[in-house]
Write a structure and sequence with these properties.
- The complex is a heterodimer.
- By secondary structure, chain A is α/β, with parallel strands linked by helices.
- Helices cover about 30% and strands about 20% of the residues of chain A.
- By secondary structure, chain B is an alpha+beta fold.
- Chain B folds into 2 domains: about 55 residues, 3-methyladenine DNA Glycosylase II, Chain A, domain 3, CATH 1.10.15; about 170 residues, Alpha-Beta Plaits.
- Chain B contains 9 helices and 8 strands.
- Chain B is elongated and about 100 Å long.
- The termini of chain B are far apart.
- The mean pLDDT of chain B is about 90.
- Classes of the chains: A alpha/beta, B alpha+beta.
Chain lengths: ~450, ~270
């Protein structure tokens, strides 16, 4: 069975909410929609306080090509345009909407009927995806239309669907595949048409055997789609790792996947594309996993974007008493939250409750040069070296040692027997070196 | 005995030859340096703090000798007296030196700005700033892990273990700017020593009035101080008040009117 070749670990899977039906979360009283929900330029709000909006109405216009539209996920009145706290604990501009009823735009098809035919051209599909504000739903929130429009001179020949879900605990993509296999495959066909490729692979890790079987059966009636079971290994869901695992091509340092002729899209993105093209529904909700060892009813919930997390958590019986850390996303790459007032955004894949004993970091000790971080690094970096460079602000050396290639998977910190905060310093290095590189390019 | 004379002769010849080679190479590759540089360098404090903008005291001496006037050339450590010495050596006129001092503009101690979460990772302000909003509810204020303490060569800045805020001793601070550049939040600022800028200032950098919920001494942008100021020295910059020291007459009305004690007066 295939897997990516360099590094990687296999943490305990803990997929507690596997097989739990996706439940529609109840509407909150108020939603908070941050103006920045994707990578790239911040958007511009096109509504004013007091405006009445419907579900699916555009409220934030993209601020450039690498940026995405944001639509209202509820119907109601805009009560304020202010700031809210985001998952990183900083304040970001946001639109507040008081929920009144649940009135959708008439153009959106809310039935569950499957629509397989799509007669739009590639350009029209990309235009609709742009308008619908779809971004990569795996967590990195890179706008989908940008990935589908390769830079001039480059051409993709294969589409890879990321259904790996290698993060422990998370099951939202798994459950989506079990419940909406046909819709996902139609979405994949549409994405193939948009990217002008004839071959698509869906990479799924072998711990989701039921999803592999189901998709294999369903895919028989589609042309050009192949399901690739993969051996479980974190971080197989990383773009570069997935391309290596599925088609065995390696992306050069600093290059985009299209360099080797591949476009990678998340499976939840494929579903969102299906809804946008066939049902005219912009990206207004997503499936998230709420889980943790001591939570009462963990499961998968379809949540409207902008719902404050505490409103969702109330529905699963509140915060468990022994909680030491609440994480937005998975345990490896997710962000620890300061407060549960943070709204669910396009990139939120789950809310994870970690008990206190597991959440406390152990005391840091000296590096014993065991090279575990070097062996396990999926990008072939030397994390121990990068950390000591970060501690000493050696940014030039860090750039030479390819700090910008780091995918922040967190394996180095996870695997270190001396509990050294390797990723903390590598992240700092990435930010600083990134700034230096941007300044250098601006000068040219 | 013969061996002694032979050895002395050979070594002596070798020494003489080497001396000749050295003499001619030093003549050939002679690089004339201005003797003034060494003279200026001898006056400078030799701490290589970088406060003047040069990498070292030697660099500053070279820059002083090379430039036509001493305009904008200030040794922050030495201050007025050293710059006058330098000027007299070089026969130029020294700039009037306004002594400055570093000021920490955050009053959020542990009691006034309670911690709402714990960070167990790397003990560095830069890392925390890069990662998330910090252990308190305020994402603008001091993190308190001491990135400013380490670069200080004059032992002028210390973290108070009770408040977890840095405290600067005014007599030790040479305003070399090291802590200002080290602070990722941009809290520390150089202010004119002894002038209104130093004596009465806004002790907060939060550009967001929502911070008032999480910090008792945050500027909440109520503008009471703007109304009460008769000298029109207080302006609003965004949601934060700023005292313009050129107009401030140190009347202290703003200090007493501030509901959150965000404006402080140093004695």
């Amino acid at each position: 069975m295939k897997r990516f070749k360099m590094g990687g670990v296999h943490p305990k899977e803990n997929k507690l909410s596997a097989g739990k039906q996706i439940v529609e979360a109840t509407l909150p009283k108020q939603v908070v929609i941050p103006l920045v929900q994707s990578l790239g330029a911040p958007g511009q709000s096109v509504v004013a306080v007091g405006d009445v909006v419907k579900v699916g109405q555009l409220i934030v216009k993209a601020g450039g090509f690498v940026s995405a539209n944001i639509h209202s996920s509820v119907s109601g009145k805009i009560s304020a345009i202010g700031t809210t706290i985001d998952a990183s604990g900083y304040n970001v501009p946001a639109v507040f909407i008081e929920v009144e009823g649940d009135e959708w735009l008439k153009t959106i098809d809310r039935t569950n009927d499957l629509k397989r035919e799509c007669n739009l051209s590639s350009e029209e599909i990309i235009k609709t995806i742009t308008d619908a504000g779809i971004v990569g739903m795996g967590g990195a929130t890179f706008p989908t239309h940008v990935k589908l429009s390769p830079p001039p001179g480059k051409k993709a020949d294969v589409l890879i669907i990321n259904a790996v879900e290698c993060e422990p605990y998370l099951t939202c993509d798994h459950q989506l595949m079990l419940e909406k296999p046909l819709e996902i495959l139609v979405g994949v066909t549409i994405l193939m048409k948009a990217a002008k490729v004839t071959k698509a692979y869906i990479g799924i890790e072998n711990n989701k055997k039921d999803a592999i079987e189901l998709l294999k059966q369903t895919a028989r009636s589609f042309t050009g789609i192949e399901i690739v079971p993969l051996r479980v290994q974190y971080p197989q869901g990383g773009e570069k790792q997935l391309i290596d695992a599925v088609i065995g091509r390696q992306i050069p340092s600093g290059a985009l996947p299209v360099e080797v002729g591949a476009v990678v899209q998340n499976v939840a993105t494929a579903f969102a594309v299906y809804e946008a093209i066939q049902k005219h529904k912009p990206l207004i909700d997503r499936v998230i996993t709420i889980t943790g060892k001591s939570i009462k009813s963990h499961g998968n919930y379809r949540v409207r974007l902008g719902t404050p997390m505490n409103s969702v958590v109330e529905q699963v019986g509140g915060i468990p008493e022994d909680t030491g850390k609440i994480i937005s996303g998975g345990p490896m790459m997710g962000k620890a939250l300061k407060t549960l007032e943070v709204p669910v955004v396009k990139g939120t894949s789950g809310i994870l409750f970690i008990p206190t004993f597991a959440a406390t970091r152990k005391n840091m000790q000296n590096c014993i040069r065991c090279a575990k971080c070097v062996v396990d690094c999926p990008m072939g970096l030397e994390p121990f070296l990068l950390m000591s460079q970060g501690e000493r602000s050696m940014w030039t050396e860090m750039e030479k040692d390819r700090v910008m290639d780091c995918i922040e998977c967190g394996i180095c910190s996870y695997t270190c027997p001396s509990n050294r905060p390797l990723l903390d310093y590598i992240r700092l290095g990435k930010t600083t070196v990134g700034k230096i590189i941007r300044n250098r390019q601006a000068k040219k | 005995m013969n061996i002694v004379f032979v050895s002395v002769f050979i070594l002596g010849l070798w020494g003489a030859l080497s001396a000749l080679v050295l003499y001619f190479t030093s003549k050939k590759f002679n690089f004339p340096t201005n003797p003034l540089i060494a003279e200026v360098e001898a006056v400078l404090p030799a701490v290589n703090c970088g406060g003047c903008g040069q990498a070292s005291c030697h660099g500053f001496a070279v820059a002083c000798v090379k430039s036509n006037s001493l305009h904008n050339m200030v040794c922050t450590v030495g201050g007025k007296s050293i710059m006058e010495d330098v000027a007299s050596i070089l026969g130029k006129t020294a700039n009037p030196v306004i002594p400055t001092v570093a000021v920490v503009r955050c009053g959020g101690s542990c009691e006034l700005r309670p911690h709402i979460n714990q960070f167990g990772g790397a003990s560095s302000c830069a890392v925390v700033h890069n990662l998330y909003g910090g252990e308190t509810g305020c994402s603008w204020g001091c993190i308190g892990l001491g990135d400013c303490v380490e670069p200080c060569k004059f032992d002028a800045i210390k973290i108070n273990p009770e408040t977890l805020l840095p405290e600067i001793s005014d007599n030790k601070c040479t305003s070399c700017n090291a802590c200002v550049t080290a602070c990722p939040k941009g809290i520390i600022e150089l202010r004119n020593l002894g002038e209104p800028a130093h004596k009465i200032y806004v002790n907060c950098v939060a550009k967001d009035s929502g911070v008032a919920d999480s910090c008792a001494v945050a500027c909440n942008g109520c503008e009471k101080c703007v109304e009460v100021c008769e000298d029109k020295a207080i302006n609003m910059i965004g949601q934060l008040v700023y005292i313009d020291s050129t107009f401030c007459t140190l009347c202290g009305k703003c200090v007493s009117v501030c509901p959150t004690n965000a404006i402080v007066e140093k004695k």
